[in-house]
């Protein structure tokens, strides 16, 4: 039963930050209209383009069977992380809160949640198997909390990475003593990757991301 509720909880929270589908169609314009359109200067910022990829924008409220959720901040312009043969992308880092109802409220034994979500893609570019536990990230927030990812809500991301493989998942960190909307930056740490001889093949990662 716990696994079922956890799956529902995870899918419910993911609805908050899912990418939207592009179902638009393109009409063929007459040549004169096309030429006129080509002469118009159209500018669009990179942030606007990125916002269009998401169903929920910062500050918006989303409601589903699990409750009502508010996305407070999103950072998806994060530099690629390289440590030894490990290449890691943080696709997005979000802060959000929710008023829970039904089974989700019963499972978490609370009617309110404040949390941080981190979406990761991890790749082993080496020609040998490498161990790197990306799901064991430890964070410190600007509000003074030090947290590990919640094991029930987070995806399992394989730590023993075979040569040339890529893995992805979402990690959830539950805030205990502060509000998600007050988090302005997050420090994130990972231990160094190592090989089958237990030798470090990269450096420990220690970064800070502003929201």
Automatic annotation (TrEMBL):
- InterPro entries named in the record: DUF4352, Immunoprotect_excell_Ig-like
Key words of the record = Lipoprotein, Signal
Ranges for domain DUF4352: 113-180
PROSITE patterns given in the database record: PROKAR_LIPOPROTEIN
Q: Where is the signal peptide?
A: 1-20
Q: Where is the composition biased (Acidic residues)?
A: 38-63
Give the residue ranges for region: Disordered: 22-68
Protein name (database record): SPBc2 prophage-derived uncharacterized lipoprotein YonS
Q: Tell me the organism.
A: Halolactibacillus halophilus
Please name the taxonomic classification of the source. Answer: Bacteria, Bacillati, Bacillota, Bacilli, Bacillales
Q: Which gene encodes it?
A: yonS
């Amino acid at each position: 039963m716990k696994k079922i509720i956890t799956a529902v909880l995870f899918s419910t929270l993911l609805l908050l930050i899912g990418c939207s589908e592009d179902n638009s169609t393109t009409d063929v314009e007459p040549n004169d209209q096309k030429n006129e359109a080509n002469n118009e200067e159209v500018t669009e910022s990179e942030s606007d383009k990125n916002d269009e990829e998401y169903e929920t924008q910062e500050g918006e409220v989303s409601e589903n069977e699990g409750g009502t959720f508010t996305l407070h901040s999103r950072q998806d312009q994060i530099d690629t992380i390289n440590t030894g043969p490990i290449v890691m992308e943080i696709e997005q880092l979000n802060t959000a809160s929710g008023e829970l109802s039904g089974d989700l409220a019963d499972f978490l034994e609370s009617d309110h949640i404040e949390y941080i979500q981190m979406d990761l893609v991890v790749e082993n570019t080496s020609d040998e198997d490498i161990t790197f536990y990306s799901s064991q990230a430890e964070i410190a927030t600007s509000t003074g909390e030090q947290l590990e990812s919640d094991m029930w809500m987070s995806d399992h991301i394989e730590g023993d990475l075979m040569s040339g493989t890529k893995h992805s998942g979402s990690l959830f960190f539950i805030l205990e003593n502060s509000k998600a909307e007050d988090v302005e930056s997050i420090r994130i740490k990972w231990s160094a990757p190592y090989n089958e001889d237990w030798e470090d093949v990269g450096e420990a990662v220690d970064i800070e991301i502003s929201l």
